[in-house]
């Protein structure tokens, strides 16, 4: 069999009632639509499997590669646990309008109700308009009765935590945490492979045909985490030309890598694929005879069998580095 290479995939673009044009204007995604809300960069969601866009494997899909290459592609422990299911869903999101207020069920609940994984996720803000915000969690601990009272009276935002955000802000969203991306935010999202969302409030916003999207009031009640934190924003430090951890959980670890010049990377210590998302600038990956450019808004997958390579940035750039510990 042909040795694995660095893999790029064709983005799966999703039009959304809240979507805009930043994915095409800022991140160079190819679409004539004015309402593209999401670019699924790497996906193994049922019916939405990513197709390879480069090199020898062009035209094959992610599932076929896992079937053929197993742990060489995703890592031994990951293959033993997930089998032929790729465990992460990687996206860029542009919210021209606010997304619905929502949450995701944990693994046990998602398995019981939907035969699916839950959805723990994180956000990295790539660009934010002035005064743009994110909703993350409650301001103070509430009861389910208080929550329902505010939901029924359309005063839910009075008890939610709303943060104005800027480029570089990071938020970790465990299952059960109520959240929403506000208007004017462009971000990178890393999450478990799951498309299960409980939508609890959608701003009384109609679809183009006058209908309204379903709400999941009943399902959400026992899935919500009603506790509160003092701050929801993740604090982290950056080191030039070095990977610094910003989020680590059982489902994924994400590092930030600010880069200028050339570095050699070695992943001998990892039994996992590694994903790179370019959130600023542009870089080139060199591996054996393969050269792959990675521009802002693009994503690549390094198979678990590829342990060392070079990354070059001709000007200041920034990558997110994602894997499973």
How would you portray this structure in words?
The chain has 325 residues and is mostly beta strands. The chain has two domains: 7-221, Jelly Rolls (Sandwich); 244-323, Jelly Rolls (Sandwich), CATH 2.60.120.10. 14% of the residues lie in helices and 40% in strands. It has seven helices and 21 strands. The chain has helices at residues 22-25, 62-69, 71-74, 76-82, 107-114, 144-152, 217-221, and strands at residues 7-8, 12-20, 36-42, 44-45, 48-49, 88-95, 101-103, 121-128, 133-138, 160-164, 170-173, 179-181, 185-192, 198-201, 244-248, 253-266, 274-280, 282-287, 290-295, 299-302, 308-323. The strands form five sheets. Strands 1, 15, 16, 17, 18, 19, 20 and 21 form an eight-stranded antiparallel beta sheet that branches. Strands 2-3-6-13-8-11 form a six-stranded antiparallel beta sheet. A three-stranded antiparallel beta sheet has the order 10-9-12, with no helix packed on it. β4 (44-45) and β5 form a beta hairpin. It is globular and about 60 Å long. The model has no long low-confidence stretch (mean pLDDT 96).
List keywords for this structure.
325 residues, mainly beta, Jelly Rolls, 2 domains, eight-stranded antiparallel sheet, globular
Q: What is the CATH T-level topology of the largest domain? A: Jelly Rolls
Helical content stands at 10-25%
- Give a count of the beta strands, DSSP E runs of length 2 or more: 21
Portion in beta strands: 35-45%
Report the structural category: mainly beta
What's the CATH H-level superfamily name of the largest domain?
Jelly Rolls
Instruction: Estimate nothing, just give the exact number of structural domains.
Output: 2
Low-confidence stretches: none
What is the CATH top level name of the largest domain? Mainly Beta
| Biggest sheet layout | 8 strands, antiparallel
Secondary-structure element pattern, one letter each: EEHEEEHHHEEHEEHEEEEEHEEEEEEE
Count of separate DSSP helical elements: 7
End-to-end distance: 27 Å
Radius of gyration: 20 Å
- Average pLDDT, rounded to a whole number, is 96
Cα shape: globular
CATH architecture label name of the largest domain:
Sandwich
């Amino acid at each position: 069999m042909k040795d694995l290479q660095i893999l790029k995939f064709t983005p799966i673009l999703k039009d959304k009632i809240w979507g805009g044009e930043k994915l095409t204007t800022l991140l160079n995604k190819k679409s004539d639509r004015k309402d593209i809300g999401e670019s699924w960069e790497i996906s193994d969601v049922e019916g939405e499997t990513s197709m390879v866009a480069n090199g020898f494997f062009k035209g094959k899909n992610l599932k076929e590669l896992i079937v053929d290459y197993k742990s060489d592609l995703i890592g031994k422990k990951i293959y033993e646990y997930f089998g032929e299911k790729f465990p992460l869903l990687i996206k860029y999101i542009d919210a021209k309008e606010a997304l619905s207020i929502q949450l995701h069920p944990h693994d046990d609940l998602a398995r019981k109700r939907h035969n699916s994984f839950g959805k723990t996720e994180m956000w990295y803000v790539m660009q934010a308009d002035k005064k743009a915000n994110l909703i993350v969690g409650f301001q103070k601990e509430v009861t389910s009765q208080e929550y329902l009272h505010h939901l029924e009276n359309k005063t839910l935002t009075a008890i939610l935590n709303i943060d104005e955000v800027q480029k570089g802000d990071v938020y970790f969203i465990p299952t059960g945490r109520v959240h929403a991306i506000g208007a004017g935010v462009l971000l990178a999202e890393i999450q478990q492979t799951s498309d299960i969302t409980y939508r609890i409030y959608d701003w009384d916003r109609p679809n183009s045909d006058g209908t309204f999207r379903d709400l999941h009031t009943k399902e959400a009640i026992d899935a919500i985490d009603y506790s509160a934190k003092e701050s929801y924003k993740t604090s982290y430090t950056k080191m030039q030309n070095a990977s610094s951890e910003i989020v680590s959980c059982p489902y994924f670890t994400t590092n930030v890598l600010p880069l200028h010049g050339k570095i050699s990377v070695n992943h001998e210590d990892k039994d996992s694929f590694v994903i790179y998302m370019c959130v600023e600038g542009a870089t080139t990956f060199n591996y054996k005879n393969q050269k792959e450019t990675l521009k802002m808004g693009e994503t690549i997958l390094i198979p678990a069998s590829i342990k060392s390579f070079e990354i070059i940035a001709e000007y200041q750039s920034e990558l997110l580095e994602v894997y499973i510990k």
